[in-house]
Amino acid sequence: SIITAFFTNGETGTTELNFIFYTTTKITLMKHLFILPLLFLSLILFAQDSKKPDYSEAIRLIDLWLNGIRDFHKLPGISVAIVDDQQMIWSKAYGFADIDTKTTSEATTIYSICSISKLFTSVAIMQLWEAGKLHLDDSVAAVLPSFDLHQQYAGSGPITIRSLLTHSSGLPRESDFPYWSAPDFNFPTEEEVKEKFKTQQTLYPASTYFQYSNLGLSILGEIVEKISGMRYEDYVEENILKPLRLNDTHPWLPQDQLGKKLATGYSSLYRDGSRKKLSFFQAKGIVAAAGFSSSAEDLARFMSWQFRLLNKNEKEILRPSTLKEMLRVQWMNPDWKLSWGLGFRVWQSNGITYTGHGSSCPGYATQLLTIPSEKLGAAVMINGQGTQPSVYATAILNILKKAKAGKPSNDSLHLGDYAGYYDDFAWQGEVIVVPWQDKLAVLENPTNTPTEDMALLKPVSHDIFRRIRSDETPGEEVRFERDNTGKIIRMWRNSNFINKIK
To answer: What does residue 411 show for φ and ψ, rounded to 5 degrees?
Structure first.
């Protein structure tokens, strides 16, 4: 088409113009003929690099599954966001941010993220480390003269910044106040925490055991203030949250939005299946360990930043090498069953390395979970205690991994006709059917392990399927029944049926 256009245009003028155009065209054409193969090759490579997995079937399964889980587990509200590298591939919410007012949960609803706050504190410490303003093996007492908590083990090594980041300092879990106690959840101020140093002592020798410590991370917040010369809250806002454009993430809970954009927090389930509204709190002197608020979509952006930084050469908030060090195992418990990075939890399951952090505060439970090697991440936020966001986040990532390993269904099979909920409440519960890689996935809900519990049906003929056994051989026949309008109304298996609900 380029050649035709060149020579057609060259024949539309005077002889002189034709000659000039022909000469110019010949030179231009030669350049194009040289460039075209390179351009074509670039387009092919770009298409290969930019090709992303089709997660549509996985998201459909996740959506139907979570919709049921919210009701089966009586969750007030749940907000979810999923990322694949730099793309937020899905976000959604179920239930209510406030039950009394029927304010619906959104993916942008704000929750307390409690212990996930520790990740932002850890990033702040590592920024100061990069600037050469502290060393990870500095003694806390040397950096923070107000730290005079009694070391009861004469043979203990020093309590260091590194040991605070890895929860191996030997410090007790909490400052000596009953701030986790209902109904008031009265958190101490920073000055009150410091004053209690005088009457508290270490629980273990330093660098001996893992002991999760909100006190330890609160002390890191004080170190940020001491070294930076700024209020902790101001430092984090200016140096981390604003540059990353985490506009709904702050080192406090926005009380004026409670029951609206900020979800109301609820208790664990009582025997009658109800949950009670819990008192509002601010973490005050424990803010660096447990005082932040955020949304599922903001946590998704925070995960995307991690994936971005791990795969670039230039600094963004931190140097890439610094984040890699934070996500490397820095502490392994003596039993070899629990490992930790710098601020981040880092662990392996079935040969896959996971990173992230969970959280649990009065009325709220949240999980931020990533698989760095896959560049996949999930944020799950619930405004109710006694819930399992870590279980849900793990299940979501397992579904995405399973989808990533295969190809989506061929539209010509019309597998969407069979998708929906089926009534098996007399026996197991609700049955979910969705298209899955040219098959149907059948899942009984409620379940916490959907990828392990799903059965696959392979199409044989119109409305007839065969279950695929674990050894990949065909099992029993499964037949779907339609009404006189052609809609699926029933699933038959082993001479018995269950009805489609919707």
So the answer is: -60, -30
Residues 353-381 as b or e (16 or more Cβ within 10 Å = b): ebbbbbbbbbbbbbbbbbbbebbbbbbbb
How many whole angstroms separate alpha carbon 118 and alpha carbon 124? Answer: 10
Q: How confident is the model at residue 27, as a pLDDT?
A: 39
d(CA 421, CA 69): 13
**DSSP 3-state percent helix, strand, coil across the chain (nearest 5):** 35, 25, 40
- Residues 455 and 452: their CA atoms lie apart, in Å, by 9
Q: Nearest Cα to 112, choosing from 372, 275, 291, 234? A: 291
CA distance 487 to 205: 68
What token pair was written down for 342? Answer: 């710098």
Cα–Cα distance measured from residue 233 to residue 231, given in angstroms and rounded to the nearest whole number: 5
Helix axes 389-404, 56-72, angle to 10 degrees: 160
Mean pLDDT, residues 129-146 taken together:
97
Q: How far is CA 198 from CA 138, 161, 176, 472, in A?
A: 21, 20, 11, 66
User: CB-hemisphere CA count at 13 Å for 38?
Assistant: 5
The string of DSSP codes covering 80-148 is EEEEETTEEEEEEEEEEEETTTTEEP-TT-EEEEETTHHHHHHHHHHHHHHTTS--TTSBHHHH-TT--
Query: Tens digits of per-residue pLDDT, 6-27?
Result: 223 333 333 333 333 334 444 3
Residue 207 CB-density burial (10 A; 0-12 exposed, 13-18 middle, 19+ buried): middle
Exposed, middle or buried by CB within 10 Å (0-12, 13-18, 19+), for 491? Answer: buried
Count CA atoms within 13 Å of residue 298 on its CB side.
26
Distance in angstroms (rounded) separating the CA atoms of residues 326 and 347? 13
pLDDT tens readout for residues 265-301 = 999 999 999 999 999 999 999 999 999 999 999 999 9
DSSP annotation of 160: B
What phi-psi label fits residue 392: left (phi over 0), alpha (psi between -120 and 50 degrees) or beta?
alpha
Q: How far is CA 251 from the centre of its chain?
A: 19
